[in-house]
Amino acid sequence: MKYGFIKTAAATPHISVADPSANAAEIIKLIGQADICGVELLVFPELCVTGYTCGELFLSDVLIHSAGNALNMVCKATVGKKAIIFVGSPVWNGGKLYSCAIAFQNGKVLGVVPKTALPSYSEFYELRHFVSGRDISGSIKLCGQSAPFGTDIIFAAKNNDTVKIAAEICEDMFIISPPSNRHAQAGASVIANLSASNELIGKSDYRKTLIKSQSGRLSAGYVYASAGTGESVSDIIFSGFRIISENGEILAASGLFESGLTLCEIDTQRLAYERRRLNVFESYDSNGYRMSEFNFDETGAELMRHISPLPFVPDDLKSVSSRAELILQMQSRALAERLKFTRLNAVLGISGGLDSCLALLAVVRSYEILGRSKKDIIAVTMPGPGTSVKTVENVSELAEALGIQIRKIPITDIVGKHLTDIKHSGKKDIAYENAQARERTQILMDIANAEEGLVIGTGDLSENALGWCTYNGDHMSMYAVNSSVPKTLVKYLVSYESERVIKYKKALLSILNTEISPELLPSDNGKISQKTEDIIGPYELHDFFLYYTVRFGQKPDKTLMLALKAFKGKYDREEIKKYLRVFIERFFASQFKRNCVPDGIKIGTISLSSRGDWRMATESSAKEWLDSIK
């Protein structure tokens, strides 16, 4: 697929123990199904050609010979198929029997990887039949072909250097130092695990945790396919569990006791970026490895994997609640520490909008942590020419719900005199708007100086990214409590707090239902006339662009493709392209504002603080980024 995506499937065929020809037929059937689905990497279970539970029959010439015939059948069935296919089988080589992963593509044997860790404890007795392939590097003749044999093989796509696959087998993942560790260090971006892990109470969760952890530790994709129905149930049972994971996240997983395919795409470009970003990722020279090349078709097939339109917000409500509580705790506890250290009281402007509401909620929580009286919170509302009736009502309701006093300082006359003093034309231009924002900041700063206060900033991450703030106006504060919270997440945090504290609900719902606006242009008969998203575009799009641009260093044309899937039916291609251009242009042009932002803790994986995560020359050109979406 394009953009480094590789369509992946984990497969569990129905097994007939010690009947390789029947098993080959089942494997071939699933290969055909996977091919129809456009699969590019297909992983079968350990010893699926014979069945894992053959016992002493593994030592029989009859079984070994028939397994070889079955592998010939599978190899021929891969002709004309684009997928690289890993199949598990016993393999006799050099007078020893190995449990192996055999890689095929288009009728070619690409390589054979023997199992390293052979369990012989409790219900397992693999050393009774097999030998370990640890440190082996050689060749083998299989299916009438000569192929590399060993644990030092990486299967590399000829035309995409981010698509590199290595294999380990079942228990290899469970040991202290799995082979996949060194595979990844040598450049493998995807690990295929052919497994025959029996089912026990609690084992499924344990496997899932290991797979997630290993994919995250390696910054890799991990494809796990285990044995299932048809294996002997004399002493143990197999559930056919399958999972596809990427960098610590589960992309797809089967239920227990289900045969068939589990499919999803793995993003190898994203994994490559993650490894570049993490300077502690211990890569080393892959000269000790042999590269077995395979063809990789970079077509524009449609993605199967879920692309959330709100990447900063968890998909399930349960996670939203736990995440929201953690974020509010982080904000309020950080602020409490700053207030405690400075021995100052919080000073903040309250507009009746979302951002100042969230900042005030964090302030109230911080005062509760410190055991301070909410009467000491210095909250100020500063209505101006653009202030609407709705936001005035919001401020009043919020103050009543939170039990705080809010000072009212109108700025219309002050700003008017200032504009007259500088001989402003009276036009409703950027100077007219910014004069209001700067006047509000000046009032807050002066109150803080006069009353031993600390000005709490209300601007959020999305505004920082877009430069949607007035330089030395709302851009500035003494502590920016919302600085790494994106706009789409702000809504969910306020919504969560409305449900957590019922007496807040009416006021917070009113704020949630208020259109986003800086309210710097005259209101229309008391109604909001200046709507942010009408000017710069929907915040949900900008947050989507921000996430993929900053978190994954992604090219805009790939971001466009993902946005088309995430927002299908809501925005068309031209709308998304238009606002993606807006985002890129504003993001590059606004670095000078981000270079001098106040302190504010990092909440999630993205921060634009020039002291921490994001250093960028103010003069950086956006040309190459804009060109990629032409």
UniProtKB/TrEMBL annotation:
Its EC number is 6.3.5.1. Keywords: ATP-binding, Ligase, NAD, Nucleotide-binding. PROSITE patterns: CN_HYDROLASE. It is an enzyme of class 6 (ligase). GO terms for molecular function: ATP binding; glutaminase activity; NAD+ synthase (glutamine-hydrolyzing) activity; NAD+ synthase activity. ATP binds at G349, I350, S351, G352, G353, L354, D355, S356, T458. It catalyses: deamido-NAD(+) + L-glutamine + ATP + H2O = L-glutamate + AMP + diphosphate + NAD(+) + H(+). Pathway: Cofactor biosynthesis; NAD(+) biosynthesis; NAD(+) from deamido-NAD(+) (L-Gln route): step 1/1. One of its GO terms (biological process) is NAD+ biosynthetic process. Belongs to the NAD synthetase family. In the C-terminal section; belongs to the NAD synthetase family. This is Glutamine-dependent NAD(+) synthetase. The lineage of its organism: Bacteria, Pseudomonadati, Elusimicrobiota, Endomicrobiia, Endomicrobiales. The gene is nadE.
